[in-house]
């Protein structure tokens, strides 16, 4: 009976992971297809479509735009999230529970609603569609995540270290930069790389808030509008590879928080 349960458990695990990763495996496999149609049978391997992607200026520009927007918006989100978390953790603010709930509220709101709201706001303010507007949208959706990660890691032992630094004559800005930030570095980097992951392949807000300079997910959507294109498999594989790298960094930052 125990052997049967083990076999069923293994089959269930294989089915679950196969359901999750089979589309990715197919995507990567047919990105190496040698022919012009990303359909069976497989003919390859070949880097033909990766060469085509790197030779396409629109795709490479969109790739650079995605990296730029992801890096800048994640840096802004993690900075604002850290300062907000530090303020709530170190000072007794009136209505702090309500304010914390308002900061994390965007986590429960659809990206479509957030994007449409920002589009209406920017149109009213006369701000044109651009990568900057998309970056602001990414800050809006990533700041609550960074705040939640960093705030959850702020404990009483850090307060004692900060108090000791103040007793030794350190001004507040030195305590913040030389004590609090290094102690919280794993949580800060975890929030940054997780934000990078979400921003890197975010489509809805980027689609609504950009016009001529677009990000890579929007450019992939433009390719798909014309039907099956082998370059989309290569681009998708590159997006997946970058996402995996960012997630690995995130996991490494979390592991550093665990005591040996």
What portion of residues is helical?
Answer: over 70%
Strand content: under 5%
Write down the overall mean pLDDT.
82
Radius of gyration: 23 Å
| CATH secondary-structure class of the domain at 57-227 | Mainly Alpha
Shape: globular
Helix segment tally: 12
Separation, N- and C-terminal Cα atoms: 38 Å
CATH architecture of the domain at 57-227: Orthogonal Bundle
- Biggest β-sheet strands, sense, barrel: none
Would you mind describing this structure in some detail?
The chain is an all-alpha fold. It has helices at residues 2-31, 48-55, 57-90, 96-104, 111-125, 131-152, 156-167, 172-183, 185-200, 204-209, 216-224, 230-257. Helix 3 packs parallel to helix 6 (131-152). The mean pLDDT is 82.
Give a quick rundown of the structure:
Residues 63-250 form the ABC transmembrane type-1 domain. This protein is an all-alpha fold. It is built from 12 helices and no strands.
Write the layout of secondary structure elements.
Elements: H1 2-31, H2 48-55, H3 57-90, H4 96-104, H5 111-125, H6 131-152, H7 156-167, H8 172-183, H9 185-200, H10 204-209, H11 216-224, H12 230-257
Task: Give short descriptive properties of this protein.
transmembrane helix; transmembrane; 12 helices; MetI-like; mainly alpha; 260 residues; 77% helix; 0% strand; membrane
